[in-house]
Specification:
The chain is α+β, with helices and mostly antiparallel strands. The chain has one domain. Helix content is about 30%, strand content about 20%. It has 14 helices and 13 strands. Strands 5-4-6-7-11-12-3-13 form an eight-stranded mixed sheet, with helices on both faces. A three-stranded antiparallel sheet has the order 8-9-10. A two-stranded antiparallel ribbon has the order 1-2. β6, α7 and β7 form a beta-alpha-beta unit.
Length: about 375
């Protein structure tokens, strides 16, 4: 039987689930794929074929508005504590504080104590910590789009942060760009599933004893995995390093082995952007123009993509240091500002092998074993943190 209403399949769905949040009959559920991603599934017995779901799909409608960035800048917060808790320069925390001080709310991804990543809303400055730091897996949107719409109707300022496809999903859901909505996307490599992350934490034996996993070095700029313990060690420590021999998840990530199928043909991996502002690590800083500031504490790349984004930055005052840089330099250091991540052949088999193979064999087969540089990096970052 042919149906008038058909949604994205596994190859194209970005898992924003605007369709599910727009359905007036609540007849769209989430069907899990073998790799742990989800695609929409319609209960045909309940569906009235109104088309509300298709009208809010940013992939099916194709009405996404892209913009050439106005400026590219290197930036960081003057608040050293915020900078230490951020993945790079702390640009997000400055923007979030500005919105919260104005009586608004902020939406972003958090990792809860069950090690699950999902979008939440915060309305207190002290809760910014929940949203800081990179999460190298898919964030479940839950009902965030509906919450954003409710806050906007109440005339609150809203800052929504996420991947470009999540922002595009929000705009499609709202069918407009309200003046009191500010959006910030991250330069995205691609997203693994929650299942991939759960498999890894189970395999290395940290799932039942950890309340949080950090993917990035927390006292400087770089990669160093650690976890927060549910109970302290005998020395009273709540934090423990995850050494490179067990940190193969991040190496599988950088190799592109675990991404959602839609990520490999991502239309948002380009210089033109969908959000008001874009943030990332400023990799390649100083390669095309001299940069005369220390970088070991972390530097953010900030793209201001329209006048609304500039308005957001004006709300931040002088807490955020900004130095304009060549756009070409920003693109050169962040490949996903130009192209989507390539799909490796190993993507076909990695998920099953990550369950069935022993860890050493898995790392050897997919060439994600640690090397000497991984251990040297830990030493260097520890030294930098003492400066």
């Amino acid at each position: 039987m042919s149906y008038k209403i058909n949604l994205c399949d596994e190859q194209s769905c970005t898992q924003c689930f605007a369709c599910q949040q727009a359905c007036p009959k609540h007849c769209i559920s989430r069907k899990e794929t073998e790799a742990g991603f989800f695609v929409p599934e319609i209960n045909r017995d309940v569906c009235i074929e109104c088309g509300a779901c298709m009208k809010v799909c940013h992939k099916l409608e194709g009405k996404v508005e892209f913009q050439d960035p106005l400026t590219a800048s290197a930036c960081w917060t003057h608040d050293l504590v915020d900078r230490e808790h951020s993945s790079s320069g702390g640009a997000f925390s400055v923007m979030a504080k500005a919105i919260l001080h104005a009586g608004g709310v902020v939406f972003g991804a958090t990792m809860d104590t069950q090690l699950r990543v999902r979008h939440i809303m915060i309305d207190k400055v002290e809760d910014i910590r929940l949203l800081q730091g990179s999460k190298y897996l898919q964030s479940e949107i839950t009902d965030s789009y509906q919450q954003v719409r409710k806050c906007l109707k109440e005339d609150q300022k809203v800052l929504f942060t996420g991947t470009p496809c999540q922002v595009a999903g929000l705009y499609a859901f709202l069918k407009r760009k309200p003046e009191n909505l500010y959006t910030c996307d991250v330069v995205c490599h691609g997203v693994p599933s929650q299942k991939a992350f759960d498999i890894w934490t189970e395999r290395i034996g940290i799932r039942s004893t950890s309340s949080k996993v950090n993917f990035r070095f927390t006292k400087g700029w770089g990669f160093q995995m650690s976890r927060h313990l549910i109970a302290p060690t005998k020395a009273g420590d709540f934090k423990k390093l995850i050494y490179p021999n067990k940190g193969y998840y991040l190496r599988a990530f950088t190799s592109g082995l675990m991404f959602n199928e839609a990520c490999y043909s991502c239309p948002y991996a380009q210089p033109k952007r969908v959000s008001d502002v874009t943030i990332a690590d400023y990799w390649g800083l100083g390669t095309m123009k001299p940069f005369h500031h220390p970088t070991h504490k972390g530097v953010s790349l900030l793209l201001v993509n329209n006048e609304h984004g500039e308005e957001l930055l004006n709300l931040c005052g002088d807490v955020l240091y900004r130095e304009e840089r060549p756009m070409e330099e920003a693109i050169k250091g962040n490949g996903n500002l130009e192209n989507p991540s390539s799909r490796p052949i190993g993507r076909d088999t990695y998920y099953q092998d990550s369950i069935s193979m022993d860890i050493q064999s898995l790392q050897q087969k997919y060439r994600i074993q640690p090397n000497l540089r991984d251990y040297i990096r830990i030493i260097k970052q520890t030294i930098n943190s003492l400066r």
